[in-house]
Amino acid sequence: MQLNQVPADIGGSSSGVGGGSVTGQLLHTHGPWTRAATAAEGLHTSTVKSKADLSLAHDDMASALGGLASLATLTAVLASWEERLGSVRDECSTLGPKLRQVAVDMGEADHSVGTKAAAVHVSGSGRG
User: Fold this and answer.
1) How far is CA 122 from CA 3, 117, 119, 125, 126, in A?
2) pLDDT in tens, 39-77
3) Under a CB-based contact definition with an 8 Å cutoff, are residues 9 and 22 in contact?
4) Is the Cα torsion angle 107, 113, 116, 122 positive or negative in sign?
5) What does the angle CA 105 – CA 111 – CA 116 come to, to the nearest 5 degrees?
6) Most buried pick, 23, 53, 100, 112, via CB within 10 A?
7) Distance between CA 109 and CA 77 in Å, rounded?
8) Could you count the other beta carbons within 10 Å of the beta carbon of residue 17?
9) Which pTM value belongs to this model?
């Protein structure tokens, strides 16, 4: 069998990229999913803070810029940024838990598939 353009030898192992050895074991780690979840949660937190800072910075804008033609444009820009930051905040708040669940689900699937594979009898291989 050949996966990912890595030729397999008869013994079931292959040479990997960089001279390493591939043992025929598909390994899964939670690390990348957990790091992605942490990044999404961090982005959620910073987006909440940025949105609050932006709103606070514009609080006195109407009274300070009253009568200027640019006030309407600045107000429209503020509304646009608040909407965008709100969308990012909302997406990140749901993304973190979903990414953490992927790590759990994949670990459970790996265990289940491994158990089923171990139960398969392959004649002449000493397995099963």
Assistant:
1) 20, 10, 9, 6, 7
2) 999 999 999 999 999 888 888 777 777 778 788 888 888
3) no
4) negative
5) 125
6) 100
7) 47
8) 9
9) 0.57
